[in-house]
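FIELD: query
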Amino acid sequence: MQSNQAQSLLIFFSLFSFASAALLGMYHQKEQRSYVMYWVIASVLIGIGAIFGAYTPKMPDIPSYEISVTCAVLGSLFFNHSISTLLGKKISLGHFGVYIIGLALVFLLCLYEIGDYAGTQYKPAVVAAFMATISFIGFRLSLKYFRESKFTLASALSITFLITALVWAVRMIAVTNYQVGFAYEGGTINGVIFIALLILSILRFLIFGGLIMEILERKRGLITQEFNQLKLDVANQKIAKSEQQLRHVLNITGDGIWDWNVSTGEVKHNDRWMSILGEKPNDMIFTNKDFKIHIHPDDLAMVLNHLESALINDVPYHLQYRMIRADNEVIWVQDRGQVVERSSGGDPLRMIGAISDISSRKRDQDQIKDLAFFDQLTNLPNRNYIKDRIFRAIQESIRNKTYSGLIYLDLDNFKNINDRYGHYVGDVLLMEFGKRIQHAVRPKDIVARIGGDEFLVLLEQVGSSKSNATQMLEQIIARIEANLIEPLQLNDGIQAAIKVSSGLVIFGEEVAKFDDILKFADLAMYSAKKDSGVSHRFFDENMQAEFNQSINLVDELNEASELDQFYMEYQPIVDRNQECIAFEALARWNHPTRGVVMPDDFIPFAKDNGLIVKVGQSIFRQVVNNHELWSAAESSRNFSIMINVSAYQLLSPGFADQLINLCEIHHIPIARLSLELTENVFVSDVRLAGEVMAQLQNHGVQFALDDFGTGYASLKYLADLPFQYLKIDKQFVSGLGDLKANEVIVDAILDLAKGLNMKVIAEGVETQEQFEILHAKGCGYFQGWYFGRPSQTLQLL
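FIELD: result
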């Protein structure tokens, strides 16, 4: 771009700025919004600056360039001040004037200093830096205004400020690195930059204009809304006044009006009353006796009592009861009335009222009650219903000195049925199961489904003594279990043999709280479920003690994890030459009162109660903090440390990053760590496990599959996950030399590992004979008491 073209571009820039200022000023002349006027001032300053910039070469006698860029900077400041005004920031004109004059002086000082120090050609870089900074501030202000106002155009305006800041930043780089010179000197880069700035200015003007329209439109909407609300308030006042005048009439007016002459007994009705009762419209006069005939016999006494109270005591008459239509259909009505006339002595003379047919509403209420108190799948009572009945049974048992019983039933294999055949078949199973239970119990016993595959059977007042009640519950549970011997017939010829675990509790005066009764039955049920040899158990105090102990153990494990009460013992792992190549870190719990607790006594409990991640973190801290261990590792041959990790911990968020950071903090060579995953609680998300293992493997960590052959793992896990070791479980090693089956299993594992190019560690090697057999079969690594027992000190073989 030549210099004359640059001059033309700057002149066009100036004309556009003046035109946009004029348009905004004319359009918003009546409104005179301060933020618009600041924008107009900004546009005028930008226009003046562009004019001086265009004619700088022709005005050498005056500082036209300095005037040009100062106007541009001040114009940009006014743009920002316009947005600040929209944000509600109140700055007096005097303070703002001092601010911009001060900033202009700072800007000019920087401009002249750079010119003197670095050369005149770097002045545009100073201008670009100031303009980029001011534009970025404009972006921040616009973005804040968008977040507060939610105007879409405010977001677009912030984007134009941001792009403008970036363009000025590009210009600063071009001036400092490529010496593109002043805008009026032309050049391709200058041309592209100032065309971009022109386009951005046009877009900013259009967006700001649209934003103003959007602001005004919202304000008009709010004004209209306030005006409509004012009109509505006035109308409501008039309505309230009318309602006050008519309230007496509305209180007694309904669908079917009746007018009772108390002294004569004559009752008049309107057409709607006759229609509700199915009477002919021409027979609109009845006597008091005719009215009584239409009331349901079971509700007649109640209605007459309410009428008498209204007549004598002048209390409101308002109740619901049943009436019998002319066609003998029973309907529900809502009846309300009022004595409107009395004698001078206060005797009632006339009473007016109205009835409404609420039969449909009653049916809806009954349906809602069914939804609230009955299970929609099995049509059995639900938790809410049986809870209410248990409360009643408690009161009856206490009052009559008797005992009641509760049976808590849980299907043992329901999840397998659901997973294998789908939820529809699972629903059919639940319905059939409910029917089987109902057929086994007495008609007065209540069977309820309280959720999922859990059912309750309530037996009220089953005995005058605990022994009698126990005998009755034994009979009922025996009948239930006998009814479940035959497989359930489900859809499409599917048969399901089911097993149920049941907990039974006797309650009366000694056990008389609902929460305790349900908790005791639940504890008994879980006790039966854990013992494969029984199908049901009665609650006893030992179960409560075990439950309390488990609760205490949860607290103690939490405390142990926080206080790092775990310590490690290390068992050597040797190669075929019986040289130590690794140690397995085995956790022990130094319990303050129980002494040393072995992992089999707390690790499974930690897994079942969601504490395994916390416990595992504490164990890892113990390993990396063992300075004696890592000092020995540095001073001797490079052995690795194998640590057991639960699948739950492996899949916990951030596990890999946490382990890497822990090793870096303690200056532990992470490549010396190997992690053992136990097969019997294997991975629920194989893809995620693979990603975590790959991340750690990139840092040198190796993985072993522990207890292979005893749990849930499939060959697919071995193919999908990056294991380097298989550990043969000690139960297969212990029978070597005596049990042929164990040798076949060991041979199969060794062949499998060889095919997968994996190393094998045999666990539980306790005799020389076992070692020699495994050695002869080609096993590469060994672990067991034959080579060394677990110890807090390292046994380097």
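FIELD: remark
The first helix runs from residue 3 to 27.
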